[in-house]
Amino acid sequence: MGATHITITVRNPAAPHRTWEGLFRVDTGATDCLVPRQHLESIGLKPQGQRTYELANGAELKLDIGVGQIEFMGEFVGGTIIFGAANAEPLLGVTALESVGIEIDPLNQRLKRLPAVRLKRASPSTARP
Question: Taking the CB of residue 71, how many other CB atoms lie within 10 A of it?
């Protein structure tokens, strides 16, 4: 089975006219998005901190992170973006997918929109009519 790819626009929330567009691999094993550092810096995004990530082989890596607007399939979400290495493949993580109500169909290698974004079901005592 091959990988699913999608074109995504990353926007600087502080300067919305500054964007970068690229082809991202959809990675359901990744929580956050990853973009090569030079592309994020080209639109004026700067690291705002660091986070430790666990790689598929179990190794841990501390990486710079920032926040950007991620646009795809007519939707947008603000999300954490990892500042990746210059040769890194851009990745779309599950947080952005779930935030806009899109899931992956691995059999057909496509993304599909859910009828509605999922919310946690309210308990009967907190549900409102």
Answer: 18
